[in-house]
Design a protein that fits this description.
Elements: H1 2-5, H2 8-26, H3 32-58, H4 64-78, H5 81-86, H6 92-114, H7 123-140, H8 156-166, H9 170-203, H10 208-216, H11 218-239, H12 243-267, H13 272-299, H14 305-332, E1 337-339, H15 343-355, H16 362-377, E2 381-383, H17 385-391, H18 398-412, H19 423-435, H20 438-441, H21 446-449
Antiparallel strand pairs: 1-2
Length: about 450
């Protein structure tokens, strides 16, 4: 008997798993009778999550089996979201976020354990659990069911509670669900940050400054990875002929590209891997994606062989120009002046022209693509946007540029924008002003930009 008593904590953990099997068997339900039983069972299951840990610590019953069984039971309890999804009281996206977090943390724990380090439960994980479990219980009570009036007497108080929960406005439920999602994401970042810190401190020989730099580099690198992903998706939609989506992604990459480099410098988190990732993302988003759009735009205007050759020649020349421009930038680095037109500006110039009713004609579009390609591989000095918009005439178009950038994105996203605003054409014109800016700022020295 004493032998079994020492396994009491593990038995309680196992009961959570068995209880969840029962819940999956009882769902979906059609009457409030079975609904109340599911809510009661789920509540008991959640309470055992508090009991087993206390029993194990208080009676010194911590075992290797318990270390595996307890987190496994916790993951299975969160699977209650699946029957809730089936009964349509929660949408799929929050369920995906919450479950993805659980599996990701499980993977992080396994990798950490293989490396000889155990990641303990932290405050964010406990807060996540404190939100998730009650919200799931509330959602079980939000399922529309057939009322059975002849309920057992002991279920009547629970039925009154169920009716009260069902009367809550939808915005309250949505607030609870999305608060849970936010806490879930925070918890994942907390655990993942702890895991990376442990790995980096091992890698750097416990050098905190270097470990901190590697950890902080994850922030701009993640933004560069998002830029890269957007570019790849843009290429996919360009091949499908859905250029508007590609243009949205390319224009969005302009913002991401502006953020990642500046953020890396401000955080002191510049790394060789980050620089390579940034260059790769720029080539995909500002080189290949606009090149594919250019190829299809030119080819779509004629089926003759020479048009095919012109289309592929123009696209290849543009892609090569971006590649050359980025390679040169990797060697020269960040400075007040760029050598040649920056590739993000060239990309926006091309893709906006491609969707403009007035500019996509082959006799206008092809020369524009060739022109901007030449400007990128040229040695003409272009002022960095941050300083150019403060020191030159471009400061007067900064606000209109932001405004028509937003209007262009909205228009491409099927938001109705009045045609007389000519959002595409004005954004193209503003971009053109930067392209010709060396003519007006050639007498300004680098010293002027460093003040």
């Amino acid at each position: 008997m004493k032998k079994y008593f020492h396994q009491m904590a593990n038995i309680i953990s196992l009961s959570r798993i068995l209880g969840m099997i029962l819940i999956f068997w009882l769902t979906p339900y059609n009457t409030n009778y079975w609904q109340l039983w599911v809510v009661i069972i789920y509540t008991v299951i959640c309470l055992t999550d508090l009991v087993d840990g206390w029993v194990a610590r208080h009676f010194n019953m911590v075992t290797e089996v318990g270390k595996i069984l307890d987190p496994l039971a916790d993951k299975i309890v969160v699977l209650a979201l699946l029957p809730l999804l089936e009964m349509q009281v929660i949408s799929s996206f929050p369920v995906f976020i919450i479950l993805a977090r659980e599996f990701a943390i499980m993977g992080v724990r396994i990798v950490s354990a293989k490396n000889g380090t155990i990641i303990p439960a932290n405050l964010s994980g406990k807060i996540k659990t404190a939100f998730t479990l009650p919200v799931c219980g509330i959602l079980f009570g939000r399922v529309a069911t057939t009322e059975i009036s002849s309920l057992p007497l002991f279920l009547m108080p629970f039925n009154l509670l169920r009716r009260w929960v069902f009367s809550w406005p939808n915005w309250v439920i949505d607030l609870l669900i999305w608060t849970t999602v936010i806490v879930t994401i925070w918890s994942f970042m907390d655990y993942f940050g702890s895991f990376l810190w442990q790995e980096y401190t091992k890698k750097t020989g416990r050098k905190k400054a270097e470990s901190k730099k590697l950890l902080l580099s994850m922030i701009p690198n993640s933004i560069s990875a998002l830029n890269l992903t957007g570019g790849l998706i843009g290429i996919y939609f360009a091949f499908l002929g859905r250029y508007h989506i590609t243009v949205i992604l390319v224009l969005s990459s302009l913002v991401l590209d502006a953020i990642d480099g500046n953020l890396a410098r401000k955080l002191g988190a510049e790394t060789k891997i980050g620089a390579k990732l940034d260059s790769s993302a720029d080539f995909i988003s500002f080189g290949l994606a606009p090149a594919v759009v250019s190829f299809h735009i030119i080819l779509g205007q004629s089926s003759q062989l020479y048009h095919f050759l012109v289309a592929i020649g123009t696209a290849v020349f543009y892609g090569f120009s971006v590649y050359y421009r980025l390679r040169r930038f990797d060697k020269t680095g960040h400075s007040p002046f760029f050598e040649g037109l920056p590739s993000p500006v060239g990309a926006s110039f091309v893709v906006v022209a491609a969707i403009s009713t007035y500019l996509y004609n082959q006799f206008i579009f092809i020369p524009l693509v060739i022109f901007v390609s030449i400007m990128m591989i040229s040695s003409i000095p272009y002022a960095h946007m941050d300083v150019a918009t403060n020191k030159t005439f471009l400061k007067h178009v900064k606000l209109p540029a932001v405004l028509f950038y937003i209007l262009t994105i909205l228009s491409l996203s099927n938001v109705k924008i009045p045609h007389y605003l000519f959002a595409y054409e004005i954004l193209f014109t503003i971009t053109s002003l930067y392209i010709v800016s060396p003519v007006f700022i050639k007498n300004i020295s680098i010293k002027d930009f460093s003040e």
